[in-house]
Amino acid sequence: MILVDEAIWPWRGDRWAHLVSDESYDELHEFADRIGWDRRRFQGDHYDIPAALRDRAIELGAQPVGGRELVRRLRAAGLRKSRRPQAAGAADTVDAVGRDESARHSDT
User: What is the largest CA-CA distance in the chain?
Assistant: First the structure.
């Protein structure tokens, strides 16, 4: 299914939304073609689209959802790509720092 969140992201004088598929990138690219959006605008796991194009996407069958629901379904489908590859390691670093800090304080 094609999903589109709310057009709340300001950029270049317009409001933008995210367009994704919770089934496949092929489905997403085909839908982008249907709404006349250039595939070169693909952002790794989504397209950013302006508010007017969001309305067209909904007319053609995209399901409007909130941003959290969009990300939840993208992740559940295994199609979410991290924008920051170090993000997973960053959480481990925070945990390690927390353990180091607690160990240091327990020695005193």
Answer: 66
Q: Are strands 47-50 and 14-21 parallel, antiparallel or unpaired?
A: antiparallel
Domain coordinates in residue numbering, the chain = 2-106
Divide the 108 residues of the chain into consecutive groups of 10 and give the mean pLDDT of each group: 96 95 96 96 94 97 96 92 54 32 34
Q: Dig out the tokens for 71 from the structure.
A: 């990300």
Give the pLDDT confidence score for residue 102 in this predicted structure.
Answer: 32
* Number of Cα atoms under 13 Å in the Cβ half of residue 63: 12
- What's phi and psi for 56, nearest 5 deg? -65, -40
In this structure, are residues 63 and 1 in contact, taking their beta carbons and an 8 Å threshold? yes
Rounded Cα distance between 87 and 68, Å, is 18
Q: Would you state the pLDDT for residue 84? A: 54
Distances (CA, A) of 17 to 5, 29, 50, 73: 6, 16, 6, 16
Q: What is the DSSP letter of 4?
A: E
